[in-house]
Amino acid sequence: MITVNPVTPDFVAEIGDVDLSRPLSAADIADIKQAFWKFAVLIFPEQALSAENHIAFAEQFGPVEADRVLDTKSGPNRVDTRFSDVSNLDATGKIWSEDSRKRMYKAANKLWHSDSSFRHRPGLCSLLYAHTVAPVGGQTEFADQRAAWDALPEAMKRRLEGLIAEHSIATSRRLSGFADFTEEEGRRMSYAPQLLVRTLPETGRRTLYVAAHAGRIFGMPDADGQALINELIAHVTRRQFVHSHRWRPKDLVMWDNRCTLHRGMDYDDLRWVRDMRRTTVSDIANSCEQEGVALPV
Ligand SMILES: [Fe+2]
After folding, report:
1. What's the rounded Cα separation, in Å, for the pair 154 and 200?
2. How far is the CA of 203 from the centre of ligand 1 (A)?
3. Which helix (H) or strand (E) covers residue 126, if one does?
4. What is the pLDDT of residues 49-96, one digit of tens each?
5. Which residues are paired to 191 by β-bridges?
6. For the segment 88-124, what is each residue's pLDDT rounded down to a tens digit?
7. What does the alpha-carbon distance between residue 187 and residue 80 come to, in Å, rounded to a whole number?
8. Of 55-64, 178-187, 213-222, where does mean pLDDT reach its minimum?
9. How many angstroms separate the alpha carbon of residue 196 from the centre of ligand 1?
10. DSSP, res 293
């Protein structure tokens, strides 16, 4: 039987007595899922995982995304395309150069975001595995959008119900100063409508669903929509909703992209190696479709 050790009362838990490199019993999988729907961020310390172990565990939650936005202009990939390469290494395994394109592209990971909210079928959850960690810095911070929703004044809740935001990777990259997309990348760049407030089917809990990818709100002037999104991100990321994870090698951390935000904290990336790999599992459908809300034209 797995052990669930809450790190915070209802947001982050460590999971023990489980070896994710081995096939899991149906009971253990059910217990992990139950903990995941309750907490939204789970930490599995001391896991010795191959790429295949990592994928196999991720697939317990749904299909693993395989397409990456950044094309080969940044050089060949260091890891296979089922993984997002969350490292500061080039294809040969050396620390990237200060002016590397990948480095500039990845700078947006320091903004509060939800993985793949810019896809029509957004990210359900992500699983990030640490091979090598920086000795100082490089934490990942998580913010609980469910608790942030609960804490909103009723008038604000009424104002937000039914609103739909447009999410795009171009928006977060613009914020981080990266605009150097190739034509091919531009074609693959998606714009996805997503509900601003959504319901988690497993628990019935309501949650905000904003991110740095969100650029405007349908039916509102662009500047007003962006201002509201900024206000909501500032609310969600108030300290009482945030947990900071300090990485250890062999940590696997998974989070629910439907109801959390995260960001990578700075570290001396031209000095220390930080080597992590992420899988993201696709949600079952667009957030509007899941709740029977008509997609905006
Ligand atoms: Fe991310």
Report:
1. 20
2. 24
3. strand 123-132
4. 999 999 999 999 999 998 776 654 555 678 888 999 999 999 899 999
5. 168
6. 999 899 999 999 988 998 898 999 999 999 999 999 9
7. 22
8. 178-187
9. 19
10. P
- Residue the block writes with tokens 């640490």: 130
Taking residue 217's Cβ as centre, other Cβ atoms within 10 Å add up to: 22
Nearest to 281 by CA among 160, 96, 122, 174: 122
Ligand 1 centroid–CA 262 distance in Å is: 6
> Where does 176-219 have alpha helices with state H?
183-188
Hey, which residues does 14 pair with through a beta bridge?
5, 43
Rounded to the nearest angstrom, the distance between the alpha carbon of 115 and the centre of ligand 1 is 5
Length of the chain: 297
189 CA to centre of ligand 1 in angstroms? 17
Alpha carbon separation from 142 to 9, 12, 30, 130 (Å, rounded): 15, 9, 24, 16
**8-state DSSP, 17:** S
Domains and CATH numbers, the chain: 3-290 (3.60.130.10)
Q: Write 1-5 long-range contacts (CB < 8 A, 24+).
A: 1/27, 1/28, 1/31, 2/28, 2/31, 2/32, 2/35, 4/31, 4/35
Ligand 1 mean position, distance from CA 179 (Å): 19
Question: From ligand 1's centre to the CA of 1, what distance in Å?
Answer: 30
Q: What is the pTM of this model?
A: 0.95
The answer to whether 36 and 57 are in contact (CB under 8 A) is: no
